Amino acid sequence: MKAFRLIPTLALAGLCSAGPVAAADDVTPQPNQVLDQSAEQCLRDSVVGAAPDTSVASLRAACADQARMQADANTSTADESAFRRRETLEKSSEFNPFSVTTNRPNYLLPLTYHDSPNLASTNGNDLEERTEAKFQLSFKFPAWIDLLGTSGDLYLAYTGQFYWQAFDVDQSRPFRESNHEPELFVDFDANWNLFGVQFLGTIDTVRIGLVHQSNGKDLPQSRSWNRVYAQLFWEYEDLLISIKPWVRIPDPPKDGPDDPRGDDNPDIERFVGQMKTVVAWRNGNDTYSAVWRNNLRADNRGSLELGWSFPLTGRLRGYVQAFTGYGENLIDYDDAHNRIGFGILLTDWL
């Protein structure tokens, strides 16, 4: 019953803080009025789901902070590049205990088609449907801002990519492959003009990280590796280019094919590559992206992923993705194939 007692208290508090009624011809809200209106709307929404012992004062304080952060973000992003707008909006929500900050794009492709099922990698379990669903979940969490008094921010992150044989009724629609990628990285604010020339854009952020990737399977389908990497983010207006070379942390060789210890995939760099380049361009309401990996060897193996996202409704965006090459996932790291997929995108590069 205490939750219902908040409602008349809220109404009285709203009346007391409303102030004098504006004149009929004064229809342009001032910034403080917009801020107050946003906080009051948040407060009304929060009361409905509040715990019985929650006070109006604590709800009002939380809503005021949220409204102020959002107002600051909206004001500061007006003349920024697409990448800096993303950074500013991320910063405004990082310390909200009820939000998760995106890392890489989050998407759901309920319909994809790949032209060459890798039968050898499925260990004879008949997971060979060319049509399957693919989705990716990726988020990060600020663990230590201004690490050791520097401009570096320490983050914990996770990216999961999943391949679901959703149309294989005979096999009870199993997940064919799941890749898990936890990582630890530090972002440093750089703000370096490229070659010292301002109109060539800015290297905005330098990232140093440690990443593990695994498909979590038993032998003989187990795949995993560990890497350290450096990553540069260069931005110019609504264009972002990210360059990410890495070095693999070596695993000891296996004593035999059934040895659970040792390297499951000793030649993975030859196929997946030793660097990744991301190019993303925000053009109006559409975003175009390319992700290119290369092994930097004479045999020139790698992959290319192209993406196009466009608005549907609210924050929901349509998404088309095309892939060609090696290493789309760990179980298929040494198998070249092509894929096209259609679905929705929840968060983008820009």
Shape: globular
Low-confidence stretches: 1-29
CATH architecture of the largest domain: Beta Barrel
- What is the radius of gyration? 25 Å
Task: Examine the coordinates and then state which fold CATH places here, giving the name of the CATH topology of the largest domain.
Answer: Outer membrane phospholipase (ompla), Chain C
Kindly give the count of domains.
2
Output the strand order for the largest sheet.
2-3-4-5-6-7-8-9-10-11-12-13
CATH domain class of the largest domain:
Mainly Beta
Q: Strand share of the residues?
A: 35-45%
Helix content: 10-25%
What is the structural class? alpha+beta
Assembly type of the chains comes to single chain
Question: Would you tell me the overall average pLDDT?
Answer: 83
Can you describe this structure?
The chain is of the alpha+beta class. The protein has two domains: 2-19 and 28-76, no CATH class; 93-347, Phospholipase A1 (Outer membrane phospholipase (ompla), Chain C, Beta Barrel). Helix content is 21%, strand content 41%. It contains five helices and 13 strands. The chain has helices at 2-18, 31-49, 56-76, 82-93, 268-272; strands at 101-102, 106-114, 131-144, 152-164, 175-193, 202-214, 224-236, 239-249, 275-283, 286-294, 302-313, 316-325, 337-347. Strands 2-3-4-5-6-7-8-9-10-11-12-13 form a twelve-stranded antiparallel barrel. A hairpin with a 7-residue loop joins strand 10 and strand 11 (302-313). Helix 3 packs antiparallel against helix 4. The longest helix has 21 residues, at 56-76. Residues 1-29 have low confidence and may be disordered.
